[in-house]
């Protein structure tokens, strides 16, 4: 019995010793695997540097392309100010801080307004949005007044149909690129275009062109002392008032000057050598940058009657879009 007990105890001790050896062998690979995992997850822990070594090595590391780009962009950043110092431009957009003010929020949809869309169903109705009935009444009244004064009994009163025909002939001449072409050639039976002769006679066209007016000539002298644009002021203002009612500009609006070529007699004709036409009438225009729609316009008439120079030119064009 004692020999069997001794053999059993020896066998039990061997089994216990074998289990402990196995646990040690298994635990060692686990430690190695944890070390390898740490190396992959955190490469910075793979090596240890002294503080001085790290500073020396960071000083000699060559700059990357990204760092060079950041340095270059930071060196080119700058601002420019206007002459009066009230307006500043920057090469980089300003970072947005908080919510935009209500004045900077666009609340209208860019494009034709509802007022314009609901009133257009054909070409003629679209044309009449720009040449409205109040404008036509002024032109008809003043043209008939001048026609009776010049031609007396020979003058036939001009009506709306005649005015539309006259404007249509002018537009058609532009479509045919007839600038500089004599009217006699346009109405010529052999080489001319039949549509001109079918619309009106050449004599009628010359008579209307002779007396067409946009104001009362008898009272123009007094009004011109205060306004150099007195000859067309009423029609011009009514036409400019219509422009913002028909189209909503987008977020990008351009305010700039435009020289309309003109070499006739005009007290505010400008000479601008850097423009292609050089001579003409300067107009400040606020236009939608995407569609080029003229949203507001202002004619530059030169110095004011008092003799002082006009300042802040073009502000009236851009003020309505703020």
Question: How does this structure look, described?
Answer:
The chain is an alpha+beta fold and 322 residues long. Among the domains are: 123-213, no CATH class; 239-319, no CATH class. 48% of the residues lie in helices and 11% in strands. It contains 13 helices and eight strands. It has helices at residues 2-41, 51-60, 65-76, 114-117, 123-130, 133-151, 160-175, 183-186, 194-199, 202-211, 220-224, 233-246, 315-319, and strands spanning 79-81, 88-90, 111-112, 247-248, 253-261, 270-271, 279-288, 294-299. Strands 5, 6, 7 and 8 form a four-stranded antiparallel β-sheet that branches. Strands 1-2 form a two-stranded antiparallel ribbon. Helix 6 packs antiparallel against helix 12 (233-246). The N and C termini lie far apart (111 Å).
């Amino acid at each position: 019995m004692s020999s069997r007990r001794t053999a059993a105890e020896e066998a039990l001790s061997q089994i216990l010793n074998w289990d402990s050896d196995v646990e040690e062998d298994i635990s060692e690979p686990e430690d190695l695997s944890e070390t390898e995992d740490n190396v992959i997850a955190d490469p910075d822990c793979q090596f240890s540097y002294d503080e001085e070594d790290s500073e020396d090595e960071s000083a000699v590391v060559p700059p990357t392309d990204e760092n060079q780009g950041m340095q270059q962009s930071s060196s080119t950043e700058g601002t420019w100010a206007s002459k009066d110092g009230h307006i500043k431009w920057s090469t980089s957009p300003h970072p947005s801080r908080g919510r935009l003010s209500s004045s900077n929020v666009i609340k209208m949809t860019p494009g034709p307004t509802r007022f314009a869309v609901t009133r257009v169903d054909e070409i003629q109705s679209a044309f009449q949005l720009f040449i409205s009935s109040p404008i036509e009444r002024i032109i008809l009244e003043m043209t008939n007044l001048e026609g009776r004064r010049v031609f007396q009994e020979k003058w036939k009163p001009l009506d709306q149909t005649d005015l539309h025909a006259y404007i249509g002939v002018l537009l058609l001449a532009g479509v045919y690129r007839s600038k500089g072409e004599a009217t006699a050639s346009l109405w010529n039976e052999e080489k001319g275009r039949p549509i001109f002769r079918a619309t009106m006679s050449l004599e009628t066209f010359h008579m209307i062109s002779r007396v067409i007016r946009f104001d009362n000539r008898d009272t123009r002298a007094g009004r011109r002392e205060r306004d150099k644009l007195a000859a067309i002021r009423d029609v011009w203002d009514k036409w400019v008032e219509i422009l913002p009612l028909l189209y909503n500009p987008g977020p990008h609006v351009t305010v700039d000057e435009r020289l309309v070529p003109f070499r006739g007699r005009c007290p505010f004709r400008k000479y601008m050598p850097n423009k292609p036409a050089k001579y003409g009438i300067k107009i400040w225009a606020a236009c939608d940058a995407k569609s080029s729609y003229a949203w507001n316009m202002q004619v530059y008439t030169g110095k004011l009657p008092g003799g002082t120079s006009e300042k802040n030119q073009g502000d009236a064009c851009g003020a309505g879009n703020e």
